[in-house]
Amino acid sequence: MISRKHAMIIQYLTDKDTYVTADELSLRLEVSVRTIKRYVQDLNYFLYEYGVEIASVKGVGYKLQGPAKELRRIGEEAAKYFEGPLDDSSEGRISKIICALLDRSYTSAEELSDMLNLSIASVNKCMASVKRILREYDLRLAAKPFYGSKIVGEELQLRALMLHYAVKSDGDRLEVKLDTISEQEIKTIEEIITEALIARSIILADKDFNELLARILISVARVRKNGGLEKSKFQEDYRLHNYYLIQDILTRIGRKLAVPMDENEALYVSSSSGIVLYDYNTRMKLTADTQDTINRFVEEALTEVSLATGLDFRGDVNFINALTMHLRISINRFKAGINAKNPLLKQIKAQFPMETSLAALVAKKLQEEFAVVLDEDELGFITMHFGAAVERKKSASGKKVCIICHYGIGTSQLLAEKLKQRISDIHIVGTYPARYLDIALKADIDLIVSTIKLDQKDVKVPVLYIENVFSDEIVNEFHQVFQEQEERKKIFRTVFHREAFVRIAAETPEEAIRNLGRAMQAKGLINEEIITMVLERETMSSTDIGNLVAIPHTISEGACPSVIGVGVLEKPILWRKEEVQLIFMVCFNRKESHNFPLFKHLYSFIRDEGNVRRVIKTFGFEKLLELLDVK
């Protein structure tokens, strides 16, 4: 059993992904180096069963090593230790103090001590670090006798501090630490944004949605504290195609929450979020201006790439649109001083060296013409678009696949092109962020490929989860999914018979089994011996499983082939503990063991009570096969 301190070591090593010294861990946990070494020994004993270890290199430090899947699992286990009270480390305390000062005006050390459940000595000990962090943002603490301290400085810098500590966006999730906005208000704001996007058929990657939400939350919080913005802080070219949508969203939020959201706030959110709007039906950017300087720049840059490398992308309209839009975002972020972290940067650099070089050519030209300097993260995003273009081929008809990817449009396109290049009988019907899953499910699809876990209750098609979007192993997994799907269809079509789909009347489980069994016997599908065996099995333990379903069953060794009878009762009856109206009587022949996997597919279908009720209501054999996805 590990402690919270052990979990802190795992979390810290996971976040760093490099060697960390014992001294660094000692400062992080506020314990001695000797204690750190003991904790590492404890953890290695605990991690052994996962195939993971904390490797130690003398003079270098510690590093967490093992299979990627197990490392992620270990990280998730460690995270559970922090689902309750917030981190009590030195770093955690500093973060708490900054958030408390951001939420209030003047605040004394005594008030901070009470609010954060820290001693005054602990608060004072952290203040030097707080002041150092504020200096990095050109902010400072102003003190007032008998009142305490507050953070002062330029408004945009204060909002930048809030983005790092009070409203933290980590790609597909948002952590909000603002007392001035309630959870219900956050939900309301999120709903207003979503409604506005859907009303215009606009698609946003999950990370972009959270970037937008984060800026709006900060805008609302600052307006409530009279932290307004001057229009002179923004340039006119900040008003890109996203401005008018954001202005509309802020107007609705202002009315709903009674907060005056003016044009300056719309300019702030528009410029700092750096989002680009796509129509999820046409996949095109929503803007009327298609002949501006960025379009011309992309055309010239791709001409230079063609001359320098022999690779000509100028005929790839999808690539040109995606690259143009992303350069708009990159320029906007640079002007606003926004750094966008790329969660796949390490993998991108390792997997796409040639495409990274192409992105670097574009970045160099961008710097020469616009004095815009792109960092490694932005370079990685552009590399993804080149990666998609390099792998792009003509779409092929075949299995209809939808991609759910939370990393962004560039990564989604790369994943789509990888699948199309390596699998001949595939047609990508769309790529969507997880937030648009309900829209994706309305499409006629055979399979979902997803980078994140989905709520399975509304998903009626197979889902292939991928951990590494760059791995070719996805191709093997893809074929395996469809092979299993075809095997499932073959099994279901073999054991389900229209003649064994009947309405029955019964008052007891025994009567229901006999009546369904005799209907099947009359069609020559089973014999009296099998009915007796099913009844005997039922006496051992009841087969009612909830959702109005019972699955009485047996395995025989006679001449009768495997078959499943389906009986729909006129009204529900009490089986043993549960009410039952739909009966699957499973009669398997031991010689046909290849049919046994059917159970897990049948249970998957039964878990959805809506499916069960539809079968009962419609009483149609074809409807049953349709709902089982084996028609």
From TrEMBL:
SUPFAM superfamilies registered for this protein in UniProt: Phoshotransferase/anion transport protein, PTS system IIB component-like, PTS-regulatory domain, PRD
Highest taxon in the source lineage: Bacteria
PROSITE patterns: PRD_2, PTS_EIIA_TYPE_2, PTS_EIIB_TYPE_2
One GO MF term: protein-N(PI)-phosphohistidine-sugar phosphotransferase activity
Keywords, alphabetical: Activator, Repeat, Transcription, Transcription regulation, Transferase
Keyword Repeat recorded: yes
Keyword Glycosyltransferase: no
Domain PTS EIIA type-2, residue spans: 493-631
Name used for this protein in its record: Transcriptional antiterminator
Organism: Acetonema longum DSM 6540
